[in-house]
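[Q] Does anyone have a clean structure-token version of this?
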Amino acid sequence: EAQLVESGGGLVQAGGSLRLSCVVSGSRYDDYTIAWFRQLPGKAREGVSCISRRDGSVYYGDSVKGRFTISADNAKNTVFLQMNNLKPEDTALYYCAVDGLGGRGTFWTKDFLYDSWGQGTQVTVSS
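[A] Here you go.
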């Protein structure tokens, strides 16, 4: 089973930026997809963005388009989420997750497709 470790969360004022990192190890697959989800207590997980190791295709949730950018350093098995123009409603616990098969297209937001999850990193945006 793959292991994922997130980092980069913190407290930032509205309009500020943060860069999250997710390091993946132990995956049995080469063509996996990595996604970022976020979650507030008592709420369902929300798909933020994903990137395919297979072909580099990326997807974004509607609420973050134009503000967040996902990228990958395949040599280091690391995925980044650059978050700009942060808003208080972006406050959440952010998780990265791996889908060992990938290629889900627009179904990438279905969290049951993901095999392994990190522990999460907290992002708090103050107004």
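[Q] Thanks! Anything notable?
[A] The CA atoms of residues 22 and 68 lie 15 Å apart.
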